[in-house]
Amino acid sequence: MNPIHIEQIRHELTWKLRQKVLYPQQTIAEVQMDEDADGYHFAAFVDNYIMGVVSLFRKDDSFQFRKLAVDASVQNQGIGSSLLNYITDFAKNEGGKTLWCNARVTAIPFYIKHGFEHTGKLFAKNGFDYEILEKAI
Fold first, then answer.
1. What is the model's pTM?
2. Does any domain span residue 130?
3. Which of 31, 60, 95, 108 could form a disulfide with 19 if both were Cys (CB 3.0 to 4.6 A apart)?
4. 98, 136 Cβ separation under 8 angstroms
């Protein structure tokens, strides 16, 4: 695979891949979040194509990331890890002390591998089971 390049993007540019990977049964309009306009959004580009996206939201010194999605054609090739490392550094540089997410249960091993810890806070939403995971940064 060619090199991965990450940059900050407008929130609208996350919607297509977010829908394709995370919510294929929904429309683009249904995957938009009201808070998108208030967040930071990042894309991983490979050959000038967006192959991964993530959205980051700040509250005081805590940052929550949401909607981490990597195109199925390039999963398990380091794009998700690259995005996660990038937003960790970004949050830390912005004075963040904690990075956290609502992790789909199926993705928990990925986040644990990247230093996140279980909180034991479990919930279900829209047919998916989640646990809140967090990491001191």
1. 0.93
2. no
3. 31
4. yes
